[in-house]
Amino acid sequence: MSYLKFDKNQLVNLEYSLKREILRSNRAGSYSSSTIIECNTRKYHGLLVCPIEEIDGERHVMLSSLDLTVIQHNAEFNLGIHKYPGNVFHPAGHKYIRDFEVGKVVQQRYRVGGVIIAKESLLVFNEEQLIIKYTLEDCHSPTTLRFRPFLAFRNIHTLSKANMYVNTKVDYIANGIKARMYSGYPALHIQFSKKVDYVHAPDWYYQIEYPEEQARGYEYSEDLFVPGYFELPIEKGESIYISVSLKEVSPAGIAKKYNSEYKQRNPRDSYKNCLINAAQQFIVKKEKKTEILAGFPWFGTWGRDTFIALPGLTLAIDDVKTFKAVIDTMVDKMKDGLFPNLGDGHQAAFNSVDAPLWFFWSLQEYVKYGCSALEIWEKYSRPMKNVLETYLNGGPFNIKIHENGLVWAGEHGYALTWMDAVVYGKPVTPRIGYDVEICALAYNAIQFSLELARLARDTKFISRYKHLPALIEQSFVETFWDEEKGYLADYVDGDHKDWAMRPNQIIAAALDFSPINGDIKQKVVEAVRKELLTLYGLRTLSPNHPDYKPVYEGDQPTRDYAYHNGTVWPWLLQPFCTAYLKINKKAGLPLIKEILKNFEPVLTEYGIGTVGEIFDGDPPHQLRGAISQAWSVAALLYIHKLVEDFELK
Asked: CA 488, CA 476: separation in Å to the nearest integer?
């Protein structure tokens, strides 16, 4: 029995099946995604979604869906499904699904009378190509398959509308067609492994709705273009293969390529293997760049997320090669001692005060993994020094280490920390001033750098920075700690100390070089455990605070107000579990194992085989946000490794 499997009773229940989504990505930056019954509920869903460099470099939905009709004795059975106005689902193809499972590839099985047809699909590892395999497992009379492609040719963040500019013509190629709806786009090639009849009948399908977009307060109705349909007979026991690609392929090689790719796939047959597979899906390799996508389906590359997620996504699964490639790619993007928060090239935004400091933490994890400290200093001391010099001398957004040794940062209208939601041009949690985790991360970065510099005998660096650790330790405690309250202030600006109970302080307790002593760490960990810890992560604000938002739902402004004011984030378990085990040693393992165990059912509840972005602050802690998030998956892999290491001690 497969680890990730759904039966007919679950699949025909739309309330159940429409909330469960599947996503597969590849190294080329493409993905394929829908619900487990292949009814698209988001504008981000599509069978083939690719980055289109010719237009904007962003991902575009090329093929939205490929509807199958089974024909016997002139009777047609439509296996597709779309949502239309009035809560109408048509055609109701989900009623024919017998089961859905995820093994090495995504597999579905349909039954129409005496016909049993199995479907498997995979994305080619490093190309913009999807291959779908249909096998007729059983039938009692001649069977014909008809395929109707629904084309979108639009950016993932927009919707397609019927228009007069669409190119309705297609070009005939070997066993298929190529279509190009609009100039500027590459052509989409749809080809079969055997001879197929194509009937050109261009038409628009109007008002296909995406309920998830509607719930999120966005436009949710789309028109999709169908150029025509394909028909071909299929014999009992026969398999046919369909290639959907941005390049023309040889039909004779489609089956061979599918089988070759299939053999390279890792089975998703356990909790750990699902996480490993999910981790690999965030890695994108283009030319000489290796990057981490922050999440699917709508996130791009984020500097902060990259460094926080990197050790869990790579070192925790012994993928050192990818770790090094990502670090080197990010170093190449540096500018004036900062890493881009998001974007690339001229579009890059450097509005992150913490991304450069998490860079040091990633290198620290690399040393703990086994890399030579001297090798790190030799290769990365220049970017490390650039960061620290920027903070010491002052950088953009008023980033500067003050005379007390603490990092001050902030500018009105900007949110520079990971709590970066902005509504109507104003940050929801601006945190201008001394931020507790930023000051702790800076201390850690300086201490780590000094440790390496001493090994390398870099006396010039040592003399410039050796006075800072003791100064920071004293200033940090004086600025953030309150013995009576028993926890750290979240940020301090002048005379204002923000005592909202937030999870940022746990980072100070988790770092290998921490500006707080063991007694304070213990009290911080306990305070966070008591007020912020849930089954699925840490709340971003205590439920006892008047600004606490228990549920993350509604339109974007409403959701953004809740994003860091109570919403639960799994990635914060990474520092929490680290700090908890530092304090409690092996006695802390039962709680950490329980946390890991809580997430196993999650793999079948939202993004299948992966972990999403966030949960509601209040029980039952409904899953929300992106269906697969890099630092969520990374945190669990990191914690798995923590537990393994502790048990070996």
From this structure: 10
Mind giving me the DSSP string for 205-249? Answer: EEEEE-HHHHHTTS--EEEEEEEEEEEEEE-TT-EEEEEEESS--
Counting the structural domains of the chain, the total is 2
Side-chain-side CA neighbours of residue 209 (13 Å) = 13
Angle 436-456/468-480 helices, nearest 10 degrees? 170
Q: Are 341 and 219 in the same domain?
A: no
| Containing structural domain, residue 642 | 271-648
144: which residues sit within 8 A by CB, 6+ positions away? 70, 71, 72, 231, 232, 233, 234
| pLDDT of 389 | 97
CA geometry: angle 340, 23, 254, nearest 5 deg: 110
How far apart CA 211 and CA 198 sit, in angstroms, is 32
Dihedral-angle region of residue 168 (phi above 0 means left; psi in -120 to 50 means alpha; beta otherwise):
alpha
The predicted pLDDT at position 27 comes to 92
Residue 308 and residue 445 in one domain = yes
Q: What is the CATH number of the domain that holds 240?
A: 2.70.98
- In the β-sheet with 568-569, what is the strand arrangement from edge to edge? 533-534, 537-539, 568-569, 614-615, 623-624
Same domain, 364 and 276: yes
Q: CA angle, corner 563, sides to 561 and 565, nearest 5?
A: 70
**pLDDT for residue 344:** 76
Q: Can the peptide bond before residue 311 be classed as cis, meaning omega within 30 degrees of 0? A: no
pLDDT at residue number 348: 84
Which pTM does this prediction carry? 0.95
Question: Both 293 and 370 in a single domain?
Answer: yes
Nearest alpha carbon to residue 67 among 229, 227, 221: 229
Instruction: Indicate if 244 and 311 belong to the same structural domain.
Output: no
pLDDT confidence of residue 1: 44
Specify whether 75 is located in the same domain as 184.
Answer: yes
Burial of residue 589 (CB within 10 Å: 0-12, 13-18, 19+) is middle
- Boundary residue ending a domain (239, 264, 289): 264
> Six-digit token pair at 348?
């890059």
pLDDT at residue 343, rounded to an integer:
78
- Which of these three, 208, 235, 264, is where a domain ends? 264
Output the domain CATH number for residue 422. Answer: 1.50.10.10
The closest alpha carbon to 151, from 191, 190, 193, belongs to 190
Supply the DSSP symbol for 141: S
Same domain, 464 and 603: yes
- C-alpha separations of 127 from 174, 268, 548 in Å: 20, 22, 45
For residue 124, report the phi and psi dihedrals to the nearest 5 degrees. Answer: -60, 140
Whole-number Å distance between alpha carbons of 385 and 70: 65
Instruction: Record the tokens describing residue 333, joined without a space.
Output: 């993007």
Divide the 649 residues of the chain into consecutive groups of 10 and give the mean pLDDT of each group. 87 96 94 97 98 93 98 94 96 95 94 95 95 96 97 98 96 98 97 98 98 95 98 97 98 97 92 95 93 95 96 97 97 94 82 96 97 96 97 95 97 94 92 98 98 97 97 98 97 96 98 97 98 97 97 94 97 98 95 96 96 97 96 98 88
Coil vs helix vs strand at 184? coil
* One domain for residues 419 and 489: yes
DSSP 3-state percent helix, strand, coil across the chain (nearest 5):
35, 30, 35
